[in-house]
TrEMBL record:
It is a single-pass type II membrane protein. It comes from Artemisia annua. GO terms for cellular component: Golgi membrane. The chain crosses the membrane at residues 40-58. One of its GO terms (biological process) is rhamnogalacturonan II biosynthetic process. Its main location: Golgi. The keyword Chloroplast does not apply. Residues 16-26 have a biased composition (Polar residues). This is Glycosyltransferase.
Length: 361
């Protein structure tokens, strides 16, 4: 029916419930006009709402109209505790846990590191502390029980950029994780995942010292160098690498971790001073030197990347003595991968089947 034919018909009888004023000022075509405008406004509002908020709907973690409940698999691992995880992986006579801390961008490095540990038959001691749910689920789907997440979840998009505040926030959690494991009564070895094992490191962890660590300086030391904390450098502190640490659950080791936590709180990240966790670790070592039994690992077995990858003469002279190689003294994900490739240490391309995680897409 057209609007013109509607005007030609007589108006219906007024409703006695309406006032004369309302009857005379509200013809049907006005209702139709109002309806059209209201509908259009509602549609525009809905389109704007969906356009603004739909990208975020899938990231909402709590159940809502737009999300489903967590699957039993997700619920199981989200509620998995550090105590449960440590107890699961430390089913060995030594009560030892090998810990790494990983966010999603470094899953390929995790896999590369794992292959080298499998070859030394110590992989069952490994516990991956996941810093995001993707890492937690990927590891536990393929290797159940070997990953745990300790809240809160960090922003993985910025955590892997060296020198950033996200990287500081990521690395600053390390001493608390290690202290928690020591408090549970376990020996703990920490490794960065840009490392590769060429031999079994445990025979080098002699005696019953509180803490074992490696030098991060490049000058060559004598093969029989002292296993004590080196003297401070120009900045008033030593230059020990926080990338590889082994500790017994002693009062001394716990004291060192607590001091490290304090140092990181006292020296937070800023734009002017783009700190990371290593200076804080060295200050903690220096300030507790008289109270903690420390052991410097042999340089030939645990060389820094600045020595192993840049001094070919030294590498030839110490051939057969190398145990753990650290791919540091270089910045950038792709550069680290290329260097490992160049030295035959990028194992995941040809040996992924040796890893408990298999090939990661």
């Amino acid at each position: 029916m057209s609007l013109s034919s509607l005007h030609q018909r007589p108006l219906p009888k007024p409703n006695t419930l309406l006032s004369p004023k309302s009857q005379s000022q509200t013809p049907p075509h006005t209702f139709l006009s109002l309806f059209n405008r209201t509908t259009i406004l509602l549609l525009i509002t809905l389109i704007i709402f969906l356009g603004v908020f739909s990208p975020y709907i899938t990231t909402i973690q709590t159940p809502s109209l737009f999300t489903s409940q967590n699957s039993p698999f997700e619920t199981k691992w989200k509620t998995y505790t550090l105590r449960e995880a440590v107890s699961f992986v430390a089913k060995n006579d030594t009560k030892t846990v090998i810990v790494c801390i990983v966010s999603e961008p470094y899953l390929s490095f995790l896999n590369n590191w794992l292959i080298s540990i499998v070859r030394q038959k110590h992989h069952e001691k490994v516990l991956v502390i996941a810093e995001d749910y993707k890492t937690l689920f990927v590891v536990n789907e393929k290797w159940p029980g070997h990953a745990v997440l300790v809240p809160p979840v960090i922003d993985t998009q910025v955590a892997h950029k060296f020198g950033s505040q996200g990287f500081f926030n990521f690395t600053a959690r390390r001493p608390q994780h290690l202290l928690n494991i020591l408090e549970l009564g376990y020996n703990v070895m920490y490794n960065d995942v840009d490392m590769v094992w060429l031999a079994d490191p445990f025979p080098y962890l002699k005696g019953n010292h509180d803490v074992y660590f490696m030098d991060d300086m490049t000058p060559v030391k004598p093969l029989d160098h002292p296993n004590v904390l080196p003297p401070p450098g120009k900045k008033g502190r030593t230059y020990i690498c926080s990338c590889m640490i082994y500790m017994h659950p002693t009062p001394g080791a716990k004291l060192l971790m607590k001091k490290w936590i304090e140092e990181l709180k006292d020296q937070p990240w800023s734009r002017a001073k783009k700190a990371n966790d290593q200076p804080g670790f060295n200050w903690a070592l220096n300030k507790t030197a008289g109270q903690v039994d420390m052991y410097l690992l042999p340089q030939a077995a645990f060389p820094t990347g600045g020595l192993y990858f840049k001094n070919k003469t030294w590498v030839k002279e110490t051939k057969g003595k190398h145990v753990i190689i650290h791919n540091n003294y270089i910045v950038g994900f792709e550069k680290k991968v290329k260097r490992f490739h160049d030295y035959g240490l990028w194992l995941v391309d040809d040996h992924a089947s040796e890893s408990p995680l298999g090939r990661l897409d």
